[in-house]
Write a structure and sequence with these properties.
By secondary structure, the chain is mainly beta. It has helices at 136-158, 200-206, 223-227, 229-234, 448-455, and strands at 4-5, 7-9, 28-36, 47-52, 59-62, 68-73, 77-84, 91-98, 103-110, 161-172, 179-189, 209-212, 215-218, 235-239, 249-256, 265-273, 279-287, 302-309, 315-331, 338-357, 363-365, 370-376, 382-385, 390-393, 399-405, 408-415, 429-433, 438-443, 467-475, 486-496, 501-510, 516-523, 528-533, 540-545, 552-558.
Length: 561
């Protein structure tokens, strides 16, 4: 068997959180209100950050509906406040002296400002601009992106929401990214990214892909990493040339400064809305992958993180995924050299199905899911999404609707009850699903002959309409799977009249890793077919009868002790 190189996906959770200080018995308080500079009305959804003269003991506060905020500072001293929100000017109040047991009240006016990135245009081949010396246009774009990342980091660290998450593991086809198979699981958590974390300094020093005996671990950036000094010191920022297909977006690229000597790294693009300045999503890909994987460079090996702004000014990661190469190691048939081949792409990720306020218990976010609505030329059966376990019934007019699909490219199959799932992997067409949209499609149901011929690797033209298929499973006497067991189907093909000799025919196979087997080309004309598994004293047999109306049968065989 050709070995597969294992993979272990890992998402990087928030690096560190600093809770708001609790009120001591005798406290120093710095409080205030954020207002509109023109109307003096309170402004909501503003993130206010507090720091001391040495930038120690930072705290953050998302103002309430009255624009109010309050910090209990750790001791007398000089402090600074910074207030920011998309669409408003950012303001810093420095040199605020707070004495022992003193309450200091301030008023922070913020002006409405048109989004500065609206008029930004990237020029041609430009050098990579280090974070310490950003050009004016890049600096404006980064300031808007930084506001979103700060809000996302605060939302995560403060546990503002309880999330219903749907996690998935998929195998994708390279190139087309069609879903070959998929499993899903649901979880409720207050952590946006319920995966193992790794400190940003280790990512910078040791790389974004960690080699371990059990397989490679892949890491992805979150808001805290992108905001960190370590990341900005080792990655440069610059504007990306406009994408003609998405003129409403502005790309802010990041790529490593070093030459790859520090281990695998990442590069990517933060895509910002020109209208609001908010981050829509982050694309990234891996550079200098270790060992054998390096020769299979692909823009599809990487990941994506989608951001969503909520009405109260908080930001969440609404969906994410990491895509990793599935490789096989094999020998060249001519020279016997070892080589690797990319056989698929493993994707692990998740999405927020519902976000509920921890304090309010109100639903703050539900995603726009994709819908497939279609017709098929059969008034019975079911339509299934290949490899996912998702399916929908077909009504008397051949209509069906499949709801709740995440974005992606899927394949559809038509299931007849009489084929016992043999047609589950018989893909009829590809369909691209987009969140919030309905995709309309028309299908032609395959004939049982087409399904059986394809499942058996036979030519449809040579598949006799009187042939069927037997599906089965072999277990030992303790009901455990029994791989490698020989299985034979035997039936009477005819009788030689002169000698009255019975002529038998047979088909044989071997049980697979899960004890499963498939026997093709058996008669489907009401003749009894004897299916036998094993040999000697443990041998067991069972008779099966197929017909044109029911050309597929299932049998379960348990070996004798």
């Amino acid at each position: 068997m050709t070995p597969r190189i294992p993979w272990i996906p890992v998402f990087l959770a928030a690096a560190a959180t600093v809770p708001t200080a609790g009120k001591p018995a005798r406290a120093q308080v710095l409080e205030g209100v954020v207002v509109d500079s023109a109307t003096q009305a309170p402004v909501t959804a503003v993130l206010v950050s507090l720091s001391d003269a040495y930038n120690r003991s930072p705290q953050r506060f998302l103002v309430d509906a009255d624009g109010f905020f309050r910090f209990f500072v750790p001791g007398p001293g000089r402090y600074s406040l910074r207030a920011e929100r998309l669409g408003l000017s950012t303001r810093t109040l420095a040199g605020l002296d707070v004495g022992p047991e003193e309450t200091v009240t301030v008023r922070i006016p913020l002006a409405h400002r048109p989004i500065a990135i609206e008029g930004i245009r990237a020029t041609g081949n430009r050098r990579c601009e280090l974070s310490s010396e950003l050009g004016a246009a890049t600096h404006l774009a980064w300031e808007e992106a930084r506001k979103v990342l700060n809000a996302a980091s605060f939302t995560d660290s403060e546990g503002l929401y309880t999330y219903d998450l749907e996690k998935h593991v998929r195998e994708l086809e390279p190139g087309s990214l069609r879903v070959r198979n998929e499993t899903r699981a649901h979880k409720r958590t207050t952590t946006r990214q319920p995966f193992e974390s790794r400190p940003v300094e280790l990512l910078v020093d040791g790389g974004w892909v960690l080699e371990e005996p059990a397989g490679n671990r892949y890491f992805a950036p979150d808001a805290d990493v992108l905001l960190s000094d370590d990341f900005l010191a080792t990655h440069c920022l610059q504007l990306r040339a406009a994408d003609a297909s998405r003129p409403d977006l502005l790309g802010l690229e990041f790529r490593p400064v070093r030459d790859g000597s520090g281990g695998p790294d990442i590069e990517g693009v933060l895509w910002l809305s020109r209208e609001t300045g908010g981050i829509e999503w982050l694309d990234f890909r891996y550079l200098d992958l270790p060992g054998l994987l390096d020769e299979h460079r692909s823009d599809q090996i990487g990941g994506r993180v989608d951001f969503r702004g909520l009405p109260d000014g908080s930001w969440i990661v609404s969906s994410w995924h990491i895509r990793m190469p599935l490789m096989v190691l094999e020998r060249d048939g001519v020279f016997g050299m070892r080589r690797t081949r990319l056989t698929g792409i493993a994707e692990e990720g998740g999405r927020v199905v519902q976000a509920v306020g921890t304090g309010t218990r109100r639903v703050a976010y539900t995603p726009a899911e994709g819908v497939v609505s279609g017709e098929i030329d059969r008034p019975e059966g079911r339509v299934a999404v290949v490899g996912t376990g998702v399916e929908a019934g077909v009504d008397a007019h051949g209509r069906f609707t499949i709801r709740g699909l995440p974005e992606g490219v899927y394949q559809l199959a038509y299931l007849r009850p009489a084929l016992l799932g043999l047609d589950r992997d018989h893909a009829l067409t590809d369909v691209r699903v987009t969140g919030g949209d309905t995709t309309a499609i028309r299908l032609r149901a395959p004939t049982p002959r087409e399904v059986m011929a394809r499942a058996c690797g036979a030519d449809e033209e040579t598949w006799d309409s009187g042939m069927g298929v037997i599906l089965g499973r072999v277990a030992d006497a303790d009901s455990r799977v029994a791989p490698g067991i020989p299985v034979v189907a035997q039936w009477i093909a005819g009788i030689d009249v002169p000698g009255m000799r019975v002529r038998n025919r047979s088909e044989s196979t071997e049980a697979g890793p899960a004890g499963e087997f498939q026997l093709c080309g058996v008669p489907a004309d009401y003749r009894a077919v004897t299916v036998t598994a094993g040999s000697g004293m443990s041998r067991v047999s069972e008779n099966v009868i197929l017909s044109e109306e029911e050309p597929v049968a299932a049998v379960s065989l348990e070996l004798r002790r």
